[in-house]
Write a structure and sequence with these properties.
The protein has helices at residues 11-26, 50-69, 80-84, 86-92, 108-116, 171-175, 183-195, 221-229, 249-257, 275-280, 287-300, 319-332, 359-382; strands spanning 2-7, 30-31, 40-45, 74-79, 98-101, 127-129, 153-157, 159-160, 179-180, 200-204, 236-240, 265-267, 305-312, 336-341, 388-396, 403-408, 413-417, 426-434, 438-443. By secondary structure, it is an alpha/beta fold. Strand 1, helix 1 and strand 2 form a beta-alpha-beta unit. The chain starts with a strand and ends with a strand. It binds 5'-deoxyadenosine and iron/sulfur cluster (SF4).
């Protein structure tokens, strides 16, 4: 069958999309980009904000005609929204054949086989696989995706789910409690990938600082980094995402010690700069503790890139609360930030509070914070002009095919002229120009 995977959401979802693609390709499927050319469309969904869900709903509406045109076609909805909204999706979109939750991705292979043999799908009510996997032991990590955006770069999920209870967030209800993958498994996978030519591995976990806590064998992010550090051929290790309440200063010392291979970058969402709002969000830290963590990171790893996320317009957020967020952003000097307008998610604690910041005010705060961060990103990037950055070359530049694009050690995008045979290798680039989004330069002689 020709299979098309349409994906929404975070890196964990992209990772799952890659796993699905690999799984079905192993079964002989052809992976295509255009849903119109597919016999089987898989929509991998996200529930994090209403906007992400709305896009899926409208896509499923548009796929109704496609599905009806040929009774042999199949349509699957998978991932976080499939988990949370299975019944309402089934009621609203009877043309969907399969609904598979984020914890049951491994079952898509079986459903595909049954589809091919004519044993599954094509009825008026979708086949559902949601909730805890009947295998139930948390070992369903599968292999890292065989289909990767770049052959020299790979992700490995080291934990799944989340034990935090941030009041605005759907992740725990969509992906369940946190389960770590055994360190030996991860190491084996990393060795295999390195032997296949992978040069950079990014470890994925919703709150990666707590990796290993549930294994009870002393595994931690630090011990994992030390193990992977030894793998021949791996040039770069990264990990995302950190949680400020769990992050230990030890981590930065370990990063400093292993700094030739563990890259100086952390993504550590602050969400707000107001202690009152942080309390309502149940984040488990104060702005002071957060800023202290950044100090510790910078002291241990000079030049470390720090990225963050913020939500504006959380229930009861006043102008004064928002000013504290602006102030935190000014002090923290993030390399980059992802900024979101609060979106109440059914079933979360925060959704019980009135969503009382008007949309227009959310928009103003979002724009103000965006402008401030752009100014900071540009200033920090301009400070790199004249420096030489070590860059792992990813691909031709998206905007100018004669140029190459890659990432610096601290995860900045670097664009420079060069031949495509450099893709997958490390080069030194002298920086000549900078914007808020990227550095531009030439290969250093
Ligand atoms: N509304 C707005 N943004 C949210 N995020 C998570 N939940 C919500 C929500 N209900 C943001 C957080 C998180 C990122 C992945 O999405 O900033 O870090
Ligand atoms: Fe990722 Fe959260 Fe969206 Fe699920 S809901 S895809 S975990 S961002």
């Amino acid at each position: 069958m020709r299979v098309c995977i349409l994906a929404f959401g975070c890196q964990m979802n992209d990772y799952d999309s890659g796993r699905i693609a690999g799984m079905l390709r192993d079964r002989g499927a052809e992976i295509v980009e255009d849903p119109k050319k597919a016999d089987f469309v898989i929509v991998n969904t996200c529930s994090v904000r209403r906007h992400a869900e709305d896009r899926v709903l409208s896509l499923l509406g548009r796929l109704r005609a496609w599905r009806k045109r040929d009774p042999a076609r199949r349509l699957a909805v998978v991932g976080c929204m499939a988990e949370r909204e299975a019944d309402s999706l089934a009621g609203r979109f009877p043309h969907v054949d399969f609904i598979v939750g984020a914890r049951r991705i491994a079952e898509i292979g079986r459903l595909y086989d049954e589809t091919l043999s004519g044993a599954a799908g094509g009825t008026v009510s979708p086949i559902m696989a949601i909730g805890e996997s009947p295998m139930g032991d948390g070992t369903d990590f599968g292999r890292a995706p065989a289909l990767r955006p770049f052959p020299h770069q790979a992700y490995i999920a080291v934990s799944r789910g989340c034990n935090k209870r941030c009041s605005y967030c759907v992740v725990p209800s969509a992906r369940g409690p946190e389960k770590s993958r055994a360190m030996n498994d991860i190491e084996e996978e990393a060795r295999r990938l390195a032997a296949e030519g992978v040069r950079e591995i990014t470890l994925l976990g919703q709150t990666i600082d707590s990796y290993g806590g549930d294994l009870g064998d002393g595994s931690s992010l630090e011990t994992l980094l030390r193990r992977l550090y030894e793998i021949p051929g791996l040039l770069r290790l990264r990990f995302i995402t950190n949680h400020p309440a769990n992050c230990r200063e030890d981590l930065f010392r370990t990063m400093a010690e292993l700094s030739d291979r563990v890259m100086p970058f952390v993504h550590m969402p602050a969400q707000s700069g107001s202690d009152r709002i942080l309390g309502l969000m149940r984040r488990g830290y104060t702005r002071r503790k957060y800023l202290r963590l950044l100090d510790a990171a910078r002291k241990a790893c000079p030049g470390i890139g720090i990225a963050s996320d913020f939500i504006v317009g959380f229930p009861t957020e006043s102008r004064a609360d928002f000013e504290e967020t602006l102030d935190l952003v000014r002090r923290a000097e993030f390399q980059s930030c992802f900024l979101f307008k609060y979106s109440p998610r059914p079933g979360t604690k925060a959704a019980e509070m009135p969503d009382d910041v008007p949309e227009a005010e959310k928009r103003i705060r979002h724009a103000e914070l965006t402008a401030l961060q752009a100014e900071i990103s540009e200033r920090l990037n301009r400070a790199r002009i004249g420096s030489v950055e070590e860059v792992l070359v990813d691909s031709p530049s998206k905007t100018d095919a004669r140029q190459l694009a890659g990432r610096s050690r601290s995860f900045r995008i670097v664009i420079f002229p060069g031949a495509t045979d450099l893709i997958g290798s490390l080069v030194r680039v002298k920086i000549e120009k900078a914007t808020a989004l990227a550095l531009y330069g030439r290969i250093a002689q």
